[in-house]
């Protein structure tokens, strides 16, 4: 009950890349790791990579809660070409959205480019196009970029 597996998303992809099927593991509650390791705010900001992993687990936990209220499932995506998406929410009607998680808003450009590249791989003759491409950040404010990608701080996420 300390971690929850996040299954891999599978859809029709034009790419010849092999999809990775192994689930990712996320803390059921990232505060457990913080407490067990005795981490302080200073220690977390001293290791932003580790802090980012915990933040991703926090966002995935929240996305699972919000998606569950509407019958959705949360997945991750990773292919053999190195393309990754932190979270994909898919609903029973086939609609879906992709999410990249970045601790700071300054990483939004790279995350948006990754989401757009991923969306181009989707064969929309066999799968619906994404309903949304979203970068979830730890700070900033919510807005839609000119390229159509949403940038949303975790505090603005709701069901």
Q: Taking Cα atoms only, what radius of gyration do you get, to the nearest Å? A: 16 Å
First-last Cα distance? 24 Å
In the residues, how many domains can be counted?
A: 1
Widest sheet: strand order? 3-4-5-6-8-7
Helix content: 25-40%
Q: If you consult CATH, what is the topology?
A: Trna Endonuclease, Chain: A, domain 1
Q: Stretches where pLDDT falls below 50 for ≥5 residues?
A: none
Total beta strand runs:
8
Number of helices: 4
Provide the β-strand percentage band.
Answer: 25-35%
Structural class: alpha/beta
What is the residue-mean pLDDT, rounded to a whole number? 88
Order of helices and strands: EEHHHEEEHEEE
CATH secondary-structure class? Alpha Beta
């Amino acid at each position: 009950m300390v971690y929850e597996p996040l299954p891999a998303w599978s859809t029709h992809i034009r790419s010849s890349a092999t999809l990775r099927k192994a689930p990712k593991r996320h803390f059921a509650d990232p505060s457990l790791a913080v407490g067990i390791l005795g981490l302080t705010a200073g220690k977390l900001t001293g290791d932003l990579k580790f802090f980012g992993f915990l933040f991703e687990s926090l966002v995935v936990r929240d996305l699972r809660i919000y998606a569950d209220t509407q019958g959705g499932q949360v997945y991750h995506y990773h292919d053999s070409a190195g393309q990754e998406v932190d979270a994909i929410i898919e609903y029973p009607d086939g609609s879906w959205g992709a999410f990249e998680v970045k601790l700071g808003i300054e990483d939004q450009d790279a995350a948006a480019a990754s989401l757009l590249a991923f969306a181009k791989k989707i064969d929309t003759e066999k799968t619906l196009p994404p309903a949304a491409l979203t970068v979830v950040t730890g700070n900033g404010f919510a807005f839609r970029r000119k390229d159509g990608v949403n940038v949303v701080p975790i505090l603005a996420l709701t069901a």
